[in-house]
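Could you join me in thinking about how sequence relates to backbone shape in a protein? We need material for that, and I hope you will provide a protein of your own picking. Label the sequence line and the structure token line clearly, so we can match residues to local backbone shapes. Would you write everything just below, so we can both look at the same thing?
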Amino acid sequence: MSSEQSNAPQFANEKDMETEEVTLQSGEKVTIGRPKGSAAAKAEIQAAMKDNPQVMEAHGPGFTLDVNWPAGQSGSTTPEFQSRTGISKWSIQTGGTFFKYRVWFETDQTYDYQFQDQTHQWYECNVWLKGGHYVDYNSNMPNIQKVSGS
């Protein structure tokens, strides 16, 4: 189900987020937003993985699914999609100053998510805490057409 951005699902307030700048393999820079406490959770998980490398495998099997998430729109996912991916809401926001687009999603799972736009560029967001997350990006073809999780 999709709706205009003005009816976008409510997500976490940006003051409740931590951000990280990342350079993609293509050389493009993106900004990732995660709930506050994610950096500490990542450090705890990395420490735990030294003793038990499978500690992060509890989220479920990997997936790659086709989606149709147009820029400027948002929506809620189907129960089947949420069960498979953990993602319950999404929004492709437009109009940023430095980054023109933001893929924002709400999840209750700890996947390493990737979102593919129409240029076949993937944007990654590792999730260590459930809640709202986003990736700010620039693209000539910004609609998200695939979602992957591992």
Notes: The chain has one domain: 14-149. Confidence is low (pLDDT under 50) at residues 1-12. The two ends are 25 Å apart (CA to CA). The CA atoms of residues 12 and 132 lie 6 Å apart.
